Amino acid sequence: MSDEFNMSMRKFLKQVGVTSQQAIEEAMRNADATEGKTFDAKMVLTIDGIALEHTVTGKIEGA
Questions:
Q1: What is the pTM of this model?
Q2: Which Pfam families match (predicted)?
């Protein structure tokens, strides 16, 4: 793959990671009584034009 592709993909993934972490942290702060609870999480990535839909699931421990 080209350097331009790699750089644009890394930039997008960094933005996803940073903004997702911020959104999760804010939601946890605004939620009542999350300490000791485990939350199911799901991230869905889609890319129009190449028919990509990729789902990642996991768990997030409340704080």
A1: 0.83
A2: DUF6494
